[in-house]
Design goal:
- The radius of gyration is 11 Å and the shape is flat.
- The protein contains two helices and no strands.
Length: 41
């Protein structure tokens, strides 16, 4: 399941970046990475 979630998260971040101009993309990526790390642990 993890492998299937990784691509979905990346795609969502890309769309968010284009919608928000890019500045919010960095914040979204960091938040997604922290969430993924918590689930991995």
């Amino acid at each position: 399941m993890a492998a299937t979630n990784a691509p979905l998260v990346r795609k969502k971040v890309g769309i968010f970046g284009l919608d928000n101009a890019g500045k919010t993309t960095i914040v979204e990526v960091i938040e997604d990475q922290k969430n993924l790390g918590f689930l991995a642990n």
